[in-house]
Amino acid sequence: MARVQRDSGDPDVGRVRAAASAGDWATVRLILEARPEREDRTELVRAVGETAGVERWITGVVEAEPEAALAKLVAGFRYIDWAWEARTGARAKHISREQFALFHSRLRTAEEWLYEAAEREPEWALPWFGLQITGRGLEVGQHIARRRFEATVRRDPYHLGAHQQRLQQVCDKWGGSHEEMHAFARESALGAPGGTALGQLVPMAHIEHWLALDGGFSGGAYMRRPEVVASLREAADHSFRHPDFVRSGGWLQVLNTFAMAFSLAEDQAGARECFVGSEGRVTESPWHYIDASDPAAAYKEHRSSAGR
């Protein structure tokens, strides 16, 4: 049995999604305010942002509460997801001029709200994390992108989402390079205390490199290199194998990413350990790189190959 799981298992995520879907701002606000910024409410805010229909009522909330940073934060994240819904996941050459115009318009609106939220709550990391996402979509350039990442991690040094966004920003496909990407992943993962979710950056960087080689023979040969396997094991030891690793936040994506990377590297013992730990709970990323229509099928196929 394997199934795609949309969240970490935190019951508040389901509650806040249901409230957002119902247009119940009072409950959304109550749940978000009960999770202090210092305890990382990223997953909760993103759950609201991913909920279709929030755009129909959140603007009214912002207008009714012009000084409320939380409403602006939620509006910003909803407009980020709404922008990507307009763009779709198709390649740029298949997206119309009208789609791009709507995509950019919604991202610019998101930026306005996120900047206003950051101004009202200067200690919050989440507005700056959101601005990392909008910045990549609006192609603000490497200098501004780096400044936004730095602003996020000054407030939350081990924020997984911020580091994931930065990893994408320094990928070859976004104007960076494989060397810069791997250096960032390794320094971030091993520079953090043992047991953090930042270990996920190392296998993700190797998967991105594999993708750049179009998978296939050359990609497979890359993943099987002894130095790649060694780096995966080193990151695993510092991350999910560490005694301080906690199953909260992005823990499930950590295990899924290592499972895929170890599988591609043909390290069956490492892959099997991750499949056992994830207990059939599949995260869409990174398995969608193998099967976008059915990430769980990709997970099951590789789990079977690993002897699970």
Describe this structure in words.
This protein is mainly α and 308 residues long. 66% of the residues lie in helices and 1% in strands. The chain has helices spanning 11-21, 25-33, 42-49, 58-64, 69-87, 97-120, 126-138, 142-155, 160-169, 178-191, 201-212, 216-223, 226-238, 251-264, 268-278, 284-287, 295-305; strands spanning 3-4, 281-282. The chain has a two-stranded parallel sheet. The longest helix has 24 residues, at 97-120. The radius of gyration is 19 Å and the shape is globular. The model has no long low-confidence stretch (mean pLDDT 93).
Helix-strand blueprint:
Layout: E1 3-4, H1 11-21, H2 25-33, H3 42-49, H4 58-64, H5 69-87, H6 97-120, H7 126-138, H8 142-155, H9 160-169, H10 178-191, H11 201-212, H12 216-223, H13 226-238, H14 251-264, H15 268-278, E2 281-282, H16 284-287, H17 295-305
Parallel strand pairs: 1-2
Helix pairs in contact: 1-2, 1-3, 3-5, 4-5, 5-6, 5-7, 6-7, 7-8, 7-9, 8-9, 10-11, 11-12, 11-14, 14-15, 14-17
Task: Tag the structure with descriptive keywords.
single chain, 308 residues, mainly alpha, two-stranded parallel ribbon, 2 strands, 1% strand, globular
Coarse morphology: globular
- Termini, distance in Å? 11 Å
**Low-confidence segments, ≥5 residues, pLDDT <50?**
none
What's the arrangement of strands in the largest beta sheet? 1-2
Summed over residues and divided by their number, the pLDDT gives a mean of 93
What is the string of SSEs from the N terminus onward? EHHHHHHHHHHHHHHHEHH
Kindly state the number of beta strands: 2
Quote the beta fraction.
under 5%
* Count of DSSP H/I helices: 17
Largest β-sheet summary? 2 strands, parallel
Helical content (DSSP H or I, runs of 4+) = 55-70%
The radius of gyration over CA amounts to 19 Å
Structural class: mainly alpha
